Structure prediction request, 89 residues.
Amino acid sequence: MEYSYPFRTDWSTQEVIDVVSFFEAVENVYEKGMNREAFMDRYRRFKEIVPGKADEKRICDEFEEVSGYSSYRAVQKMKQATENVHVRM
Prediction:
């Protein structure tokens, strides 16, 4: 990938790592598929760091603009899965 992940300068190093981990999970869902529970764990951690809907939308839109991958669609697809299954976009 030839792009950088969105992050905020006021986040700790661990928070940056966890947000990047979430965006890597979004990439995995599109490219290879991913276990639902593992993805949702990363999403829950992302939401701890970015709890506001407006901030989440802004950061996810930044990621989609550079990567072409929709975090929103990946999260919705995972939420629709009723079991802990391997999901791919």
About this structure: Residues 8 and 16 are 8 Å apart (CA to CA). Strands lie at 34-35, 86-87.
